[in-house]
Amino acid sequence: MVKKNITLGEFIIKNQASFQYSSGELSRLLNGLRLAAKVVNHEVNKAGLVDIIGEAGDVNVQGEDQKKLDVLANEKFIQTLSKREIVCGIASEEEEDFISINSYDEKHQNKYIVLIDPLDGSSNIDVNVSVGTIFSIYRRVTPVGTPVTLEDFLQPGRDQVAAGYIIYGTSTMLVYTTGDGVQGFTLNPALGTFYLSHPNMEFPETGNIYSVNEGNYVHFPQGVKDYIKYCQKEEDDRPYTSRYIGSLVSDFHRNMIKGGIYMYPKSSVSTNGKLRLLYECNPMAFLAEQANGKASNGKDRILDLKPTELHERVPFFCGSRKMVEKAEEFMAAHNE
Ligand SMILES: O=P(O)(O)OC[C@H]1O[C@](O)(COP(=O)(O)O)[C@@H](O)[C@@H]1O
Ligand SMILES: [Mg+2]
Ligand SMILES: [Mg+2]
């Protein structure tokens, strides 16, 4: 039985066996993320009081207007991760290309690749709705002693060594996995310390919440339309409740606690959906599977997809296993 209320640092040391490489390396990685999370949390909490609301004035590689908090979060995570003498490369939603980071001895001794969505749910920043940060961690595949290459970033999701998110909501939490279950830590703002509050988080096998932007309904494939109608039908334990925050991290977090499915399907206006495989879908899929949930593109397991580009998008169905299987059934009925 995992004792609650131990700190993140204590938990990592106590559970070093759950990380296939040295726990010292994991600590340094998570410490970097933890520090940046606290800085971003501080800014998020006073958004509106200080000039952190609104557009930054630039457009990112996705063609989206960057929010000031997107830019700040991006800078903070890259800064802290670059200084830990452990990360050799970072890719971010807000950076067109990957960033190569050399070790202090200039001999490319660092071993970890980090992919991040520095601020998830950007459309919610200015309206005081919860947002998040998502991270995905791999060991490099190119030899230590050489600079990282694109190959190090285009690894299938099943090779992640750790993944997680920070949610800036009613409380601030860091939720992560190293392939041995999912642990949730809550920030005690007075002490600036994360404490284990949600050990061994698990998706209920099924649930009654569906999360999808129904404003896109007319553009959805027939299989998705049929599944939404199925969720809304008065039959058995249905109709389900529709809940859509518009921040992937927040919708995922709620569905993991209560049972539910999140969908961002392909549509006639976005042929591969909206979400990015490398720093949104892969990390959330790793967490989902580690929490007995499921994640697919409507047909194939997300973690088995072979990435081809840094910012590629994929359709995303994720959550309680039985609900994702049901949605896949409807997709398969239309060969979608
Ligand atoms: O407004 P839409 O089209 O429903 O999209 C909302 C989805 O897009 C996202 O905001 C994309 O993430 P970013 O905010 O990091 O770009 C998800 O968090 C969210 O689930
Ligand atoms: Mg995002
Ligand atoms: Mg983002």
Description of the molecule:
- Pathway: Carbohydrate biosynthesis; gluconeogenesis; Carbohydrate biosynthesis; Calvin cycle.
- This is Fructose-1,6-bisphosphatase class 1.
- GO terms for molecular function: fructose 1,6-bisphosphate 1-phosphatase activity; magnesium ion binding.
- With about 325 residues, this protein is of the alpha+beta class.
- It has 2 domains: about 190 residues, Fructose-1,6-Bisphosphatase, Chain A, domain 1 (2-Layer Sandwich), CATH 3.30.540.10; about 120 residues, D-Maltodextrin-Binding Protein, domain 2.
- The chain is built from 7 helices and 15 strands.
- A hairpin with a 5-residue loop joins strand 1 and strand 2.
- Helix 2 runs antiparallel to helix 3.
- Bound molecules: 1,6-di-O-phosphono-beta-D-fructofuranose and magnesium ion (2 copies).
- One magnesium ion binds next to strand 5.
